[in-house]
Structures are given as C-alpha cells and as structure tokens.
Amino acid sequence: MDILVLGLGVIGMTYAYALQKAGHNVEHFVRESKNGKVGSTINIKLLDGRENSKGVKKTDSYSIKLAHPDSIYDFIIVSVSMGKLEPAIQTLSENNIKGTLILMCGIWEDKETVNKIAGSYSYILGYPVAGGTITKDFLDCVLFDHIMLERQENAAISNYATLIQAFNTANIKTECPDSTLEWIWIHMAINAAVISTAAKYAGYSNSEKAAESLMSSASALSEAVLAIRETIKIVETRGVDLKKYKSELLPYKIPSKIAGLAMKKMFANNELTRKIMQLHSNVDDLIYVCKSVYDCGQQLKVKAPLFYKNYQVCLRNLQIT
C-alpha cells in the first residue's frame, strides 16, 4: 500500500516505521523550505509492545522517503500538534495530495467542525497508542499493540477493510469505541487532569521529572483521580453518555486513595505506560490539552475547582498568561 505521513513528528514517524517494516511504501510530505534539512535516515530506539505486554527494546534505523505534490495515496496519516489540524489539511489540499485521511490527533472540536476542516477529503478518526520524543536524527519511542479507530459504520470511507489490513500487517490491532470522537474527548479530559496535577507539583520545565514525580507519588495520583472526576464531568456536560465508556472510567470511580496506590503500582510494573509518560515532552501540546478542557468547563459553567486551581498553578509555574 502507498501511505503518506504528513510531516516528521513522533507519532507519524513511529507508525511510518512500523508500516514500512511491514512492507508498505511510506513517504513523508514536508514543506519545500524544509526539504534540504531532512536527512535520509533516522536512528530509532523503540520499546515495542506488539510482541508482549512488557515491551521489547529495539534499536534500528528508518529510511525517510520524501513525497512530492500532485500525488495520490491509499492513506494519509495526519498527526499534528493539537490545534493545527486545519492548516495541516490545507497544506495537503494546496499541494494537490489526495488520499483517505487518518486523523490521529487530539481533537476537541465537534463532528460538524471536523467535517468542515476535512473539506473534500474522506477521513477516519483514530487515536495513536504510541509516543516518544524526536530530535533531528534520533527517535526514542514507544509503540503499543493496538490503535483506536472509528467504527466502520461511523466512518465515511470506502477502504475501511484495507486500512484494517494495513495495521494488521504491522501487527497492530484495532480497537473501536462506541464513538471515537467522544473517546478522544474523554482521553483528553483525563490527560488534562493528570498534566495539570503533575505540573502543579513539579512544573513542566522538565516534563520527564514531572512525570516521574507524579507516577512515584500515591498522594499526587490520588489528587489526579479527583481532578479526573471533575474533567470527566466537563465531557459529560458536552452531551456524552458516560455509561458507554464504563470500562475506561471504572479506575477513577473507586476511592481516590485506593486508586492512587493502584496507579502507582501500575506505573511501577508497566514499563510501556511509564515510558510513554516520561517521553511526552511537547509542552505546547500538554498546555493545549489543559486549556481546551479548562475553557470548555468555564464556558459550560461546570464546577471543577481542583482542576481549575491546578491548571492556574501550572500556568504560573510555566510563567504562561
């Protein structure tokens, strides 16, 4: 299959590597002004969760193949910094690049807005279960054995089975929640509570240190659980039926002190999850998640005093106004 990845970000590069290793032709589109700055290969350090639940440590290299305007692909992976989806799709349109979009981004907009942003492109919503950090010639990443993907009946694309097959060839299973967009909202709400709590205690000038501090403290994790209950209420106020997502939300319904202890144990024993927390270092993205949830809660007049307070402390720690 011919697959395009927009840009050279962590998520796109991680899945590009997996799909290329599975035998697919994978190319990257970058702006013409950046072409001369892109190397032909990048070194990869991967904690691979596709073989077992503990993850297998691998080192490898990935060959970067650049795409050109006026090209057609089976699929186009779009995983851009949060809030930058519209200009990303405009870039594809302006360069006459065609294909079915896989939107693997944190999206806080409603479905009508996403449809408007996508324009004439057919698309499917997904959410990556991967992460890491990247420099010019080195990618340090984590890849789980599954990816979140929109159900076939909710996705207006004609090549759904082909997409499932592509991920299967890379040993990546697909999980389909009742509504992927609602699932993304819930995931962002949980992340907002966790991020703001971590930043309150350790700041995000060193995101790895902040993550370590949170994951090692049962009391901080207990506070994060209380904040999660508030941010989930914001999602519910948007009209989401939380009963459809019982399994995802169950860990946050038990007493917070017990939940904090359980989460601390989970992070200590689950290297994949711990590593992905340590590597998530894009402060702009982290703040965008918090701000999206915060602004929505304020607009809907949802009571979430702990989350609001932690978010404000987070901004002060980062000296953001």
TrEMBL record:
Report the superkingdom from the record. Answer: Bacteria
Q: Domain Ketopantoate reductase N-terminal spans what residues?
A: 3-104
Give a single Pfam family match: ApbA
Name of the protein described by the UniProt record: Ketopantoate reductase family protein
Source organism per entry reads Lacrimispora defluvii
Classification from the root reads: Bacteria, Bacillati, Bacillota, Clostridia, Lachnospirales
